[in-house]
Amino acid sequence: GRCFVARQSHCKGLAENTRTKAPNADTLQDSKHLGFSGRDDQQQWLGGVGPTTSSRGLAGADVVVGCREITVQDIRNACVSSKTYRAYKVSLASISKWIRASKGESGSQYFTADGEIDVGVFTARDFESFLLEKRKTVSVATLSGYRSAIKDLYRRREVPLPIEKSMATFFSGLKRMEATRLQSGSPKESGKDPLPFSLYRELCKATITRDDGGFAHMFLTTQWNLMCRSESVQRLCTEHLSWHDDSIGCIMHKSKTNQEGTGPKDPRHMYGNVFSPDTCWITALALYLACRPTQAPGPLFPGSEQKARFGSALRKLIADQKHRNHYGTHSIRNGVATFACSGCTGGPSIASVCLRVGWSLGGVQDRYIRYETAGDQFLGRVVAGLPLNRPQFASLSPHFKDNDDPAVGACVQAMYPELQKVSGLRDILKLCVASLVKHSSYFRAELPSTHPLLTTPLFRNKEMMANLSANMVTCESPWMTPTGIPPLVELYKQLEGVQQSIDNLPPVLLDGMSTFIEKKGVAAGNITRDLLEATIESLLERAGLAHVRHTVPSAQVPGDTTTAAHYYGGKFHMLPESFEFPKVGAHAAWHLWWFGDQARGYSPLRRIGAHDLPRDLMRKTYSNWRNLMQRICEAALQGGCQITVDMSEQVAEKVFRVGMQNLPLLASTRKRRVSELSLGTTLRLARQAAQKRSRSAPV
C-alpha cells in the first residue's frame, strides 16, 4: 500500500512538472531576439502546422512536448530514461538476431505478433545459450546489459520474473572467469582507467585553446569539479548555481542513483585556483560565458547531445596522446575520486567523497552519515588542484576589494548582457570577471589571436582592464573569508611567517652592526666616507649651492581614439600585417565593426577598406562581415532605432538587440544553439530566409 501511494505521489509530481505550458509573449519575443522568427513556435501553440515532438512508443517514453495531454502510460514509461530504452532496444535486437540465426525455421515461434520476443517461449536456458555465444566477443558488463533488457521486457509484458538464482550463479561464474583471465596477464578488453591529475592538466591546457569557445574546457572542468557523470553535466542549468562567497555551489536534483529526485538537495562547492588558470573552474566558466554573450538563463550547455559532442572532442584529444586510448568520459569521474581519496595522505574523508560522487554507503547513508558543508568545501578545494601541503591551499579566488564598485557592474553588464539580468547570477559573474582580469596576460599569451575571448569588451578596453586590475585582490580580503580550510593549513601559514622572519634577520643584523661601527668611528675621530659626503652636502646647502632636482610633471594627454597606420607591402594600411578575422558570432563582430579593438590597435572595421587587409584572401571574409552588419543595421532601422557613428557601446548593444530581433533567419525544426552561431552561419540563414521570401512573394 505504501509503495502504491508513493508511486502515485511521484507520478502526480512528474505529471505536474512535465506538463507543457504555452509560452507567453516574452518567451516568443526572446526567441525572436535570439534569431528565430517565432512563426513555427506560434503555430505549434496555436494549433497550426508547426513542428511537434512525438512520444517514443510503449516503453521508455520521454515527456511529450506536443499538444496532447500526458497519459498514465506516459508516466509509467517515464521510469526508464530514453537513453536506457534505446540501449534495451539494441540489446533485444541482438537477441532477436541470434534467435533467427540459431533456431532456424522454428525461430518464428519465439516472437509475438508485434515482432517482440515471446517471454513465454524464450526460456532461461535459451538466454544462457545466447550469453555463452556472446561472451566470446564482449565483456561481462555488456552481458549484464542484455540481462537488464530481458528484465525490462518482462516488466512491460507484465509477466513475473522467473527465479534468478540460477542466472545469478551463471553471472558469478562469468565474472570469476574474467578475473582469472585478467590475473593471468591477458589484455584488458573493456572498461576505462581513472584519469590521473597530470593528464587532466594536459587536457585542460589543450581544451582551453580549442576553437569551440571554451565548450570542451568548460565541460571537462565541470565534470571533474562536480565529480559527476557526463549525463549530469549535460543537464546543468544556470538555476542550479549559487554564490557562496569564496565558492560557487551547484545542486544536482537528479542523478543515476537518485532518479526520482528524493535525495538531499545539498550544494557541491566548486573553487577557483589562482595558481593554475587552465584548471580553474571559475576561469573556465568566465571564458565559456564570455564567448556567448547572447546566451540566456537556462541550460548551461544548450542544444541536444552535448555529452556526445564532448565525448567526440575528448576522444580526439586522447588520440593525440600515445598509448592513452583506454581513457574516456567515465575516466574523469573515476580519476577525480581516486585523486581526492589517494592523491594525498591527508586528503578528505571517504564519506565526503562518496556523498559527492553519489556512491552508496549502505544503510548508514543519510541516516548516520550525512552531508556537512565543511567536508564538502574541503573536498572542493582539493579537487580544484590547490596545494594541500602548502599555505597557499587557503588562497581565495580572484575578486574585487569593492564588490559594489560601479565599474565592476558596468563590466559585468558589458560582458554578460543577458545573464546579468538574473540577480542570483550577478555575484557569480563578478567572480568570473575578476578571474579574467587576473589571468588576462595568460590568455593573451596562450590563446590564438582569433579566439572570441580576445574580442570581448574587457579585452578591447585598456582603461577598463587597468581600473579593474587596481581593484582586484587574491590574498587578504576585506570581506571574503576562506572556507574549507583544515587546521594543518593554519599551522603551515604560521610556520611560513616564522621562516620569513628568520630570512629577514641577517640584513637587520648587518644594518645594526654597520650603524654601530659608524657611530664608534666618529667618536674615535675617524672620518668615514658617509660622514664626509653628509658634511659636504650640508655645507653646500647652507651656502645655497645645493643642486635641486625639479621634476616637471608630464602633460596629461587625453586618450586618443585614433590608431596608427602600418606600413608593409610598399603602402600604408589601417590594420597590422598580423591581423586575422576573429572566429566570433554576430554580437562580437558588431562591436568590432563599430569600436574596433583598442588593446590591439585595431581601428573600427567599418572605417577600413579592402586595401587595408594584409592579404587578398581576406576580402571575401570582409565582404561577409560588411553584408551582415548592413542587414543588422537595416533591421534595426525598421525597428525604430537611430544609428549614429558616435553612438556609445550601450546604445550599440540596444541597436544590435533590435536588429537581431527584426532580422529574419531561416527557421529550424531542430534545437539550435543560437548563442554559438558563427557570423558565417548567421549570414547564411539570413540569406536563405531572404531567398525564401522572394520565392514566395507574388509576381
From TrEMBL:
InterPro entries: CB (IPR044068), DNA_brk_join_enz (IPR011010), Integrase-like_cat_sf (IPR013762)
GO BP annotations listed: DNA integration; DNA recombination
Signal peptide: none
Keyword Cell membrane applies: no
Alphabetized GO MF terms: DNA binding
SUPFAM superfamilies: DNA breaking-rejoining enzymes (SSF56349)
Domain (Core-binding (CB)) ranges: 70-158
Protein name: Core-binding (CB) domain-containing protein
Organism name: Phytophthora nicotianae P10297
